[in-house]
Amino acid sequence: MKAAVYTRYGPPDVVQIKDIEKPAPKDNEVLVRIHATTVCAADWRMRKADPFLVRFMIGLWRPKKVNILGMEFAGTVESVGKAVTRFAAGDQVFGSTGFKFGTHAEYVCVPEDGALAIKPVNMTHEEAAAVLFGGVSALHFLREAKIQAGQKVLIYGASGSVGIFAVQLARHFGAQVTGVCSTANLDLVKSLGADEVVDYTREDFSRAGRVYDMVFDTVGKSGFSRSLKSLKRGGLYVRVGGSGRLTSILGGMLRGMWVSMTGAAKVISGVARGAAGDQSFLKGLIEAGKLRTVIDRRYSLDEIAEAHRHAEAGHKKGHVVIVLEHV
Question: Is residue 83's pLDDT more than 90?
Fold first, then answer.
């Protein structure tokens, strides 16, 4: 099978298309023929080892534990292990491999009890492939922040892959949502349900005099000072993403701990962890017409380097999707 493989850290061109052995499912696994996958922030960060801590996860000098990126997918069940009972060949499914990665390929094996479910009936494979990274991330952090109906929530990076779900889910939970994005994405964020939008190219959200119960930064660029200035005393500052040198990351962690200790705000950050039922919850909202995804650009697997380049540039609307064409 064809797969996008990388054996060293670096720019998008380190990812190369190679022919590798097609996987075979274990007794408890499902073999999925992938129709669509995505290039998300986790993919390009792993590829370039940004932040530096990535090297301690998968290899200090070169990636040893992960050589095929890709976290989410949609496709058709090709075959199942002999102990599998929930799925059968021909089922249309969507899912995630999490930090095991491996979906930038024509096939992937997934445990039956992993993040795998029948595809939403009202989504294409391309749309369904772009649900779990952003959807689970947004859901995790909103729940960590114990979002409440009536709260005023500012979402910075509202048009990105996490942001589009954060806007929709915050509205679903009854919050009043202000989305921060660029001029080109204002209409999109409004269509997702934001009550107000702020164009960061024309206005600094922290100088408008508005005060929020929560600032949810989906891209790690809102800044501590600006965000705290816009929060009520003891409000919630949610930080997703972030990059740079180890000293910068540790400095941000220490500042967050200090801010939380002083009571100025409660800082929530870290890595999103999917919980049991998350996929079913998101699928239910999708099939009820209350949640959708947004696709910015589509690429073939052969164009994977260009897809990485576009995703890393940081100006995409929603998701960058890889469409696999099977002969």
Answer: yes
169 vs 64, residue with greater confidence: 169
Token output for 36: 């669509």
Residue 59: what residue type?
G
**pTM of the full predicted structure?**
0.92
Question: Average pLDDT for residues 30-39, to the nearest whole number?
Answer: 98
Q: In the prediction, which pLDDT does 256 show?
A: 59
Contacts of 70 (CB under 8 A, 6+ apart): 4, 37, 38, 39, 43, 97, 101, 102, 103, 104, 105, 322
- Specify the fold of 2-131+293-323: Quinone Oxidoreductase; Chain A, domain 1 (3.90.180)
Residues 200 and 189 sit within 8 Å (Cβ to Cβ)? no
- Three-state SS at 238: strand
Dist. CA 116–CA 124, nearest whole Å: 16
In the chain, what are the domain boundaries?
2-131+293-323, 133-268
Q: Beta partners for 76?
A: 33, 92
Nearest to 109 by CA among 99, 118, 119, 100: 100
What would the CATH number be for the domain defined by 133-268?
3.40.50.720
